[in-house]
Amino acid sequence: DGPPGGRAHAKAILLGEHAVVYGAPAIAVPVRSLEATAALVPSTGSKIRSALYTGPAADAPPSLAPVLAAWHAAAERCGTAGWASTLTVRSDIPGGRGLGSSAAVAAAVASAVAAQARIVLSDEERHALIQRAETVAHGRPSGIDARAVVATSPFRFQRGAADPIDVGAPLAFVIADTGTAGSTADAVASVRALRDSHPRTVDTAVERMAELADEAAIAIAEADPDALGARMSAAHEILALLGVSSPGLDSLTRAAHAAGSPGAKLTGGGRGGCVIALSLSPDTAGLERALRSAGAVRTWTTTLAATA
Ligand code: PMV
Asked: Is residue 63 within 8 Å of 108, Cβ to Cβ?
């Protein structure tokens, strides 16, 4: 039965990243093929075992600060038992790719601590713990990642609240990695700086992104891939205007279009990281090949099942 553990999965933002920070709705989808897990065994003092670092928690590198924040907050909520332990963290979600790696690890850690203390956390309690870690990782996160890494279906997110959306027919997406990490904190800060200097430009972009997110949700419900793809591509143009795209992201979105994808865009914070491209068919092999030929170092797929 193993030591007490927790797990969470990756996520992708289909529409509305950055605009969501300013109150616009966004749509996120779970990416279940990539996972983070955490397990705890009692030990003298607190230790961490991970791909990045193994040793006393006190000497962990700054990149593990969000993990420590999640662990601390969860141990505080659940009693100190979870703190005098060795925490083993594994994640196949690459960091800095807009795939929610920090939130997924935090969610897995919170669940592992709760399991060790035999406490059942409510969804809201777990969310608050993940957000504590996200705040350490990103400054002032909107909370969309914290919801998405534990979500079982696609959802619309706005001002902290997540509501599942209807899916009219199955959809397949390819996520392609530029191979370059992007800092979400830096990207969010750059949009904020642009908003300070050019408020009208950013406010107009946020309004348009809000419309695109709601139109995309309708297209998903009405099983209209062309309408959805058009909204995704339009969103990419706006994100580029906001300065969060990159030559690598632009070239992968172009390659997706050339391979017949109805729409493609960067996903997450941008300035590196990944694109998400809608596939015309459930067989994504051709689109994945095209994206790899255009320079993607890895590709993954995620599918949305039709809701009844
Ligand atoms: O963690 P990322 O890179 O998927 O970015 C999250 C989405 C942003 O809108 C850019 C930031 C946020 O807090 O919502």
From this structure: no
